[in-house]
Amino acid sequence: MNRDHVDVQQAALDEYHDDPGDLPVMRARFEHNGSPRYLLYTIKRFGFDRDHGFHLDVQLVSDALEDGIETVEAQLQEGHADLIDIDYISIARERAEGADIVAFHPYGRTVGGLVAPEDSDIDGLEDLSGKRIGVVRRLDKNWILTRAACREYHDFDPDETATPVEAGSKVELTRMIREGEVDAGFQFWQIIPEITETGPYENVLPVSELVQRLSETDNKLPIAAFLTSGDYLDDQTETVRAFADAYRDAVDKLVEDDEIWEEISEKLMTYDDPNVMRAVRDGWRDMVVRDWDEESVDGMYRLFDHLKSVAGAEALGVEEIPEGTFNTDP
């Protein structure tokens, strides 16, 4: 995505950035290529922040790494942001290292799926052995989750019985799938429609299904969550609650209204193919988690234990989820 397109997206958001006046401000800093921007645009487009008594200031930032952490994380930890989203393993890791951060609302099941040719003989977990399986990297959560599920339900580890092939990037993984260098590949959810809607490929194994099985809960389980600093949560508790309300309004809009997705496609996406846009829309609707409770958090702990048993605490970067990482009722 070039800089011009990032500027176009920011301009689309800025169209709805009016004067906050006396309203409390929440500074949201999100990656320019991340799916939360669809939700944030919807909040601004329909004024859901003002409806709930606050001003959401949205700025799109780089997804580059700085000193080993994502730029959005640096924005929060350096005091330049009040709201970001990352996966909950990263939240736990940063909190264990002393960061004053708290996850206060879910975002979604930000995992991917196994993309294979339509004529592939791979239909599920039990078919992975003996195959060349593309992954962005061996420590990618899609691969670790798959390994955990294979060990739990089929008594084998595909890291040993299959041949995982590291692509190094999402773009390179897509190329490897299309050129047949791998039998299948674990791609991220928002990229899968670019492959399956434009060629003879299908998502044969949605990793979200593994998330649900391993977490042992019927609640739709989030992998990514919204977080803020402990200080902001203490000082602006009502604003944090107001964001959660605005978030629910935006989720309802995006789940029920197809027309807003046409607008989002025009202003925030790079897809020219309406079939791809609709597939991204449907994928987002399946991915997003509207709310959570203590049962959800219990499932997140169970899922963490499965990942730790496969990858080890060193690979995850954290031995356990610290107390106070999640606040389901701020």
TrEMBL record:
Alphabetical list of SUPFAM superfamilies matching this protein: Periplasmic binding protein-like II
Catalysed reactions, as listed in the record: N(6)-(pyridoxal phosphate)-L-lysyl-[4-amino-5-hydroxymethyl-2-methylpyrimidine phosphate synthase] + L-histidyl-[4-amino-5-hydroxymethyl-2-methylpyrimidine phosphate synthase] + 2 Fe(3+) + 4 H2O = L-lysyl-[4-amino-5-hydroxymethyl-2-methylpyrimidine phosphate synthase] + (2S)-2-amino-5-hydroxy-4-oxopentanoyl-[4-amino-5-hydroxymethyl-2-methylpyrimidine phosphate synthase] + 4-amino-2-methyl-5-(phosphooxymethyl)pyrimidine + 3-oxopropanoate + 2 Fe(2+) + 2 H(+)
Assigned keywords, A-Z: Iron, Metal-binding, Pyridoxal phosphate, Thiamine biosynthesis, Transferase
Annotated Gene3D superfamilies: Periplasmic binding protein-like II (3.40.190.10)
Metabolic or biological pathway: Cofactor biosynthesis; thiamine diphosphate biosynthesis
Biological role: Responsible for the formation of the pyrimidine heterocycle in the thiamine biosynthesis pathway. Catalyzes the formation of hydroxymethylpyrimidine phosphate (HMP-P) from histidine and pyridoxal phosphate (PLP). The protein uses PLP and the active site histidine to form HMP-P, generating an inactive enzyme. The enzyme can only undergo a single turnover, which suggests it is a suicide enzyme.
Assembly, per entry: Homodimer.
Protein name: Thiamine pyrimidine synthase
Iron recorded as keyword: yes
Gene Ontology BP terms: thiamine biosynthetic process
GO MF terms held by the record: metal ion binding; transferase activity
Pfam families linked to this entry: NMT1 (PF09084)
PANTHER family found in the cross-reference section: 4-AMINO-5-HYDROXYMETHYL-2-METHYLPYRIMIDINE PHOSPHATE SYNTHASE THI11-RELATED
SsuA/THI5-like domain location: 56-257
InterPro entries reported for this sequence: NMT1/THI5, SsuA/THI5
Domain of life: Archaea
Assigned protein family: Belongs to the NMT1/THI5 family.
Organism: Haloplanus aerogenes
Keyword Metal-binding recorded: yes
Regions that span the bilayer: none
